Amino acid sequence: MGETKVAKASGSSSEYKDKDKPTAIRFSNITAGKAVADAVRTSLGPRGMDKMIQAGNGEVTITNDGATILKQMEVLHPAAKMLVELSKAQDIEAGDGTTTVVVIAGSLLEAAQKLLLKGIHPTAISESYQKAARKCSEILESMSTPVDLKDKNSLCQSASTSLCSKVVSQYSNVLGPLCVEAVMSVYDPIDNSVDMKDIKMIKKLGSTIEDCEMIDGLVLDCRSGSGGPSKIEKAKIGLIQFCISPPKTDMENQVVVSDYTQMDRVLQEERAYILNIVKAIKKAGCNVLLVQKSILRDALSDLALHFLAKMKIMVVKDVEREDIEFICKTLSCKPIASLDHFTSDMLASADLVEEVPTGTSKVIKVTGIAKKGRTVSVIVRGSNKLVLEEAERSIHDALCVIRCLVKKRAVIAGGGAPEMEMALKLSQFANTLTGMEQYCFRAFADALEIIPFTLAENAGLNPIATVTELRNRHANNEKTAGINVRKGAITNILEENVLQPLLVSTSAVQLAAETVRSIMKIDDICLVWEIGKKEKPLEVNEGRICAAPPIRPKRVLAEGRVTSHAEEDKTGEMACR
Ligand SMILES: Nc1ncnc2c1ncn2[C@@H]1O[C@H](COP(=O)(O)OP(=O)(O)OP(=O)(O)O)[C@@H](O)[C@H]1O
Ligand SMILES: [Mg+2]
């Protein structure tokens, strides 16, 4: 890859030709992108493997979620970062399909590389990819079936398909209906929207995932004040943002009291001050007090707790600042910022507030709320921290699947059926085209076969035999033929109830094609040196920019093998050559 500089000494214009550099940059970007896709490929599908990721601080995560795997990796190459962003974009748009989108993008990049080697111009590839992606959406829509939000069975099946590929798959019969119920409880029919912030998940170590429950009310991961009641019926709840403790001096100041009588006066004052606040709270009719955490001083002094307990007011301490909005929405009340505003009309009513033991600690449950807002709380249980966190991520994916069905009410068969159908229809459509476009459409179609190929590979089936049979079945107009991983054969995947939202597949193809298009359009990487920063943003080798190393995970323990830095450096060197 030598650079060609042609400088014409004679003539008015001097020409600078560097034909190889854009190609080298493009290939380097493609290599980096493919490396990211390969890193998550083994996690695809119900028989996909999980990754154990160890962060620099020693924290370990076990996950199957594509977006989480990529988020945790330390990716250096800018083009590889685009694939990480792609997965994030899919997570925001659809919530599921974050592995699929990256695998498709990797395959499209590989196809583009072959097209580039054939001499097709990157702009032609980019434009054809855009048209092909649009055509794919049409094909997917034509094979989708509308779904009614009242048809809970279909919704549960879609949630179960998403949960099937996770560690928690054996509990999909419990979690599926729970997710449907949760989303339908917060669904806003007027805006036709679901705000995921209205579903609060509380992780509690202990018990098994089977014991996950949805509470039609409010659950707070807080403790009640010691000495006071821990169960109140017919509750009048007040949420305060002010402190019930003696005021503090400014940071730098100190008050030294050496006289005993003066000290006594200070204590008397403090007692009177706190008692005044507690009496005002009691007078307003409040019997459950939620107190926001304070960083300036103690939100509640011991004396305040003592008085509140005496007056039979249940205290819920340490309510987080970020939970205030959710609590207000659930209880249909407003937070009270000062004692002057503590009036009975600011209080919320509920049938029961109680502290219940859950696992190793306790939670506060509020049920029978009088004017309950559109929110739900879900208690996630798990036998260890890693399973618990993965369960939360899996439930989040399943919730997003139902949200997708609310946004676009259509489902398609899973198990590689949509990708194979797109591949087939797209190559048939390619026959009607001419020139380079036909080449590009064909390449795009073939690239989509990576999904059924990977699903078969991860399920331990023969990928080539499986993909060819699947292709034949689709050619015989069996649109719903898919890979049945349980039977290890190609069957009508609808009989297995493997359904997924249309939006997940359309957005995966669209977003993947868009990212590949933008990578195709890059012909140079400019290094901008930050003044005072010694580190090089990218490695430069003899004037050439190379993808060394394309990705440098902190420490990915893939397939039981620790990738050492020495190994990574070798890969980097190879990429430079
Ligand atoms: N029971 C099943 N049989 C066959 N294929 C299935 C089954 N369940 C799911 N799939 C397929 O597995 C793929 C989804 O796998 P997976 O959930 O691991 O990845 P993802 O959804 O792309 O990413 P993530 O869930 O990490 O965001 C889809 O193509 C889906 O059709
Ligand atoms: Mg999934």
Automatic annotation (TrEMBL):
A Pfam match: Cpn60_TCP1
InterPro entries: Chap_CCT_delta, Chaperone_TCP-1, Chaperonin_TCP-1_CS, Cpn60/GroEL/TCP-1, GroEL-like_apical_dom_sf, GROEL-like_equatorial_sf, TCP-1-like_intermed_sf, TCP-1_chaperonin
Location of the region described as Disordered in the Swiss-Prot/TrEMBL record: 1-20
Highest taxon in the source lineage: Eukaryota
Recorded GO MF terms: ATP binding; ATP hydrolysis activity; ATP-dependent protein folding chaperone; unfolded protein binding
Protein's cellular compartments: Cytoplasm
Entry's Gene Ontology cellular component terms: cytoplasm
UniProt keyword terms in alphabetical order: ATP-binding, Chaperone, Cytoplasm, Nucleotide-binding
Main location: cytoplasm
UniProt similarity note: Belongs to the TCP-1 chaperonin family.
Entries under NCBIfam families matching the protein: chap_CCT_delta (TIGR02342), thermosome_alpha (NF041082), thermosome_beta (NF041083)
Protein name (database record): T-complex protein 1 subunit delta
Organism: Dimorphilus gyrociliatus
Taxonomic lineage: Eukaryota, Metazoa, Spiralia, Lophotrochozoa, Annelida
